[in-house]
Amino acid sequence: MQQSSPPGAAPLPDMNLLPALDALLRAGSVAGAADELNVSPSAMSRTLGRLRRVVGDPLLVPSGRGLTLTPRAHEMQPRVQAALAAAVAALRPPREVELALLRREFRIRTNDGIAMSLGAPLLELVAREAPGVRLRLLPEGDEDPADLRTHVDLDVGELPDPLPHDVRNSALREHRYVAVARADAEFARGPLTPHRFAELPHITVTRRGRTYSVVDERLAELGLSRDVLATAPTYGAACFFALRTDALALVPSEVATEAARVMPLAILEIPLELPVATTGLAWHVRLDTDPAHRWLRGALARVAAEASPQTSAVTPSGAAGAAPAAP
């Protein structure tokens, strides 16, 4: 099949001739090349004729009872073998990535809560398995999925629904929210009741200034309301706010666990029936079968499975999970 070429350029030769040329140069005979490619000697003889016209050289000439390669054929042989090997490699399915040799930068967009709970374990895993990989964690902004087509390799967080048709996604883990407070606060010594929970000032995390959430809906069902003392831009900031006030900060349980390692914070269950949220991964379809990107997604899944926290929360009877968005 004659290959098309850009306007004004010399026409490309028929690339289907490449395997026959390689076989002829290696076998040094029409019969040997025909047997290798499972075609008849007459068909291979016709192909040799076409190759001679394309190359402008006889390639194989009589020598005694057989054929021998011309100088041009000898000169072409290593380049023909390399070209054929490159074409075969280009058309093969991607192989598993050699992690020890991988050199790649991944741009991951996520929130500070996920960075706090999964960032360090992920870096440890990368250092062990793929030391040439570099991670660039980007802060959440408008969370536009269109960014996955350009400068974001992976979104990690609570994903919008629906996603664009060219974005793939998978669940990473479920998470719930808890309340954190100063460990020496009087109200942190035991379980919270819904009334006590509503009476205390709250700190919530929002990047859009919203203060009403599913927590307010559940309180309203009980005839209660709450006072949002402050909103914080990040979960880490919310924990620091709670440390210096008499307020409850509502954060994911994995954030509470990490914060309580380094701050004198108590972790308390939210005494409301609230839905469990799902953290997911989202990526553009162009990266779906990329071996290195598949490894990164698998690495995050492994880290998330290992990092599932067991909070030391005081659990009141009847309390359940938490909200699918920052309460």
Automatic annotation (TrEMBL):
<dbReference type="InterPro" id="IPR036388">
    <property type="entry name" value="WH-like_DNA-bd_sf"/>
</dbReference>
<dbReference type="Pfam" id="PF03466">
    <property type="entry name" value="LysR_substrate"/>
</dbReference>
<dbReference type="Pfam" id="PF00126">
    <property type="entry name" value="HTH_1"/>
</dbReference>
<dbReference type="InterPro" id="IPR036390">
    <property type="entry name" value="WH_DNA-bd_sf"/>
</dbReference>
<dbReference type="InterPro" id="IPR005119">
    <property type="entry name" value="LysR_subst-bd"/>
</dbReference>
<protein>
    <submittedName>
        <fullName>LysR family transcriptional regulator</fullName>
    </submittedName>
</protein>
<keyword id="KW-0238">DNA-binding</keyword>
<feature type="domain" description="HTH lysR-type">
    <location>
        <begin position="13"/>
        <end position="70"/>
    </location>
</feature>
<dbReference type="GO" id="GO:0003677">
    <property type="term" value="F:DNA binding"/>
</dbReference>
<dbReference type="InterPro" id="IPR000847">
    <property type="entry name" value="LysR_HTH_N"/>
</dbReference>
<dbReference type="InterPro" id="IPR050389">
    <property type="entry name" value="LysR-type_TF"/>
</dbReference>
<keyword id="KW-0805">Transcription regulation</keyword>
<comment type="similarity">
    <text>Belongs to the LysR transcriptional regulatory family.</text>
</comment>
<keyword id="KW-0804">Transcription</keyword>
<dbReference type="GO" id="GO:0003700">
    <property type="term" value="F:DNA-binding transcription factor activity"/>
</dbReference>
